[in-house]
Every structure is written in structure tokens, then in C-alpha cells.
Specification:
alpha+beta, 13 helices, about 280 residues, four-stranded antiparallel β-sheet, about 10% strand
Length: about 280
């Protein structure tokens, strides 16, 4: 079977458009440009906790633990903020390179989930009652049976692994400077990123980093970051009711007016017009 990146994206878009479940991709393979937009959490609860307390870095650290657990195979677990999810490893040549998260659920073990939520709220100085309200409104119950989830997610695992094997997207050069920078930007593109800081982080000059990135990506780092933010915005506008102003700040834009200007430049529509056409408004 000749799996293309378009096949994978169509499958993911179809599942997301169903509106009942949330699917996200994590790991090395999100350096593939077409897959980056599926790394964003569309569930309003997950989005809320990452933006109100700056816990994005903590989430990334926890994902390293998830990758370790993926060596044991597929599993159902509860994240550090009390969200239940099924996790499916994506492997290549016997090595786990990432995983698919299928959620966001409550139930199965509500006692543990609520304990994690309260611990998370206390640690980050958040109002527990507000978090509980958002969680009740946004998370899904009951948790679907494993056999039903297997039917949906295992074909996606097969497509991803087939594509990665065919294209060698995660080959021996996946740890080179460009891949490392790309992975870092994909993970942190909603945060303030400057060429000077990136160059210092990778112990190279600004000109070297700029030339390397443009040679491999075909665009400047600043434009690439802006493109990622717009793709995130499109997903959030289509699949959530998060206010436009909140989206603009959460994605790293200095103000909503500038966000609207950039968004219209890329799409030909204002954020509100885009949301209205998507049917979310």
C-alpha cells in the first residue's frame, strides 16, 4: 500500500471533523511540515491549562515519560492535569519515535483524575472550582471501549509507520542541526523566539542558522513561526469556541489587531469570517 502524507492528513481531518473525539500527534515525526498542525490540543480544557499557567513546558516533559511507557505498547492513562486518553506508539525499526493521543476523557478512574487535577491546580495556583467546571463542560464521557478505539487508531498507526518507513523521514540524520532546530521551533512556536536566542541555544551564529533553515525549509525562521501560528489559529477557530482575542495572545501575537492582520494576509479572511464560514460561530 502506497501511503501518502495526503492520505494521513485526510484521515486525521475526517476524524477531527466528527467533533466527538480529539486526536493529537507527538514525537519526532511532527517535524514533518504537514503533520505539525495535529500537535495542537483542540480540547478547550487542555488548551486552557496550557495557556493560563504556562504549563506547556511541563506537558513536554511529561510526554518524554509517555514515550518511555510506549515501549510497553498501547495503553490508557490519565495525564498530569486529570485528562484520560488512549496512547498508541508509532515505531520505526523497532524504536518508538512518537505516539498518537486519543481523548479527551473523564471517567474510568475519576478518583485518580480528580486527585491529579487538584494537585495540578494547587501547584500552579489555579482556581480548582473553575478547572472542575471547564473539565465537566469539555471532557468526554463515557470512555469508549478499547476495541472501538483500536478500530479507529490502528489504521492511523499503520499509515504513519508505512509512510515514515517509505520516506525515511526519521533516518540517521534526524538528529542533525536543522532537524533539531525544526523540532524545537515546532514545540515552542507560541513562545517568544528570537534568532539571537536560537543561535545561542545551538551554539552557532545567527547567519549560519538563518542560512541553514532557509536552505532546508525554503523560508525564513520568522515566516515559518508565523505560518505555524496561523495553522494553529485555523484549527482553533474551526474546532473550538475559544474567543479570537484569547487565541491571538495564546499563540504569541502581540495584540489581536496584529493577529487579525496577519491572519487575513494568509487566508484572505478575518479570524471571525473564517470561523463563521467553518460553522463554529
Amino acid at each position: 500500500m502506497n501511503v501518502t502524507i495526503e492520505d494521513i492528513c485526510r484521515y486525521l481531518d475526517f476524524m477531527i471533523e466528527q467533533g466527538s473525539y480529539y486526536i493529537t500527534l507527538h514525537g519526532d515525526f511532527i517535524t514533518i511540515p504537514e503533520l505539525i498542525r495535529y500537535n495542537i490540543h483542540l480540547n478547550p480544557y487542555c488548551h486552557h491549562i496550557k495557556t493560563t499557567c504556562g504549563s506547556w513546558e511541563e506537558c513536554i516533559k511529561k510526554q518524554c515519560n509517555v514515550l518511555e511507557k510506549c515501549r510497553e505498547g498501547e495503553f490508557y492513562g490519565i495525564c498530569y492535569a486529570g485528562v484520560g486518553e488512549y496512547v498508541y506508539p508509532v515505531t520505526l525499526a523497532g524504536k518508538v519515535h512518537g505516539f498518537i493521543s486519543f481523548g479527551s476523557f473523564k471517567g474510568r478512574n475519576e478518583k485518580m483524575a480528580l486527585e491529579k487535577l487538584r494537585h495540578f491546580a494547587t501547584k500552579n495556583h489555579l482556581n480548582t472550582d473553575i478547572l472542575l467546571k471547564i473539565r465537566d463542560d469539555c471532557l468526554i464521557e463515557p470512555v469508549p471501549k478499547r476495541c472501538s478505539v483500536d478500530t479507529i487508531i490502528r489504521p492511523l498507526v499503520f499509515m504513519l509507520e508505512s509512510y515514515l518507513e517509505k520516506t525515511s523521514q526519521l533516518g540517521s540524520d534526524s538528529t542533525d542541526l536543522y532537524s533539531s532546530v525544526l523540532r524545537y521551533i515546532n514545540t515552542n512556536h507560541t513562545m517568544p523566539l528570537s534568532m539571537k536566542n536560537l543561535a545561542a541555544h545551538y551554539n552557532c551564529s545567527v547567519s549560519t542558522l538563518s542560512h541553514l533553515f532557509k536552505k532546508n525549509c525554503g523560508m525564513s525562521i520568522s515566516r515559518y513561526i508565523q505560518k505555524l501560528r496561523i495553522e494553529d489559529a485555523k484549527m482553533l477557530l474551526c474546532h473550538s469556541n475559544i474567543p479570537v482575542t484569547e487565541i491571538s495572545y495564546n499563540l504569541g501575537f502581540c495584540n489581536p489587531a496584529y493577529f487579525s492582520e496577519v491572519f487575513k494576509k494568509y487566508t484572505g479572511l478575518s479570524p471571525k469570517e473564517y470561523r463563521k464560514l467553518s460553522g463554529t460561530a
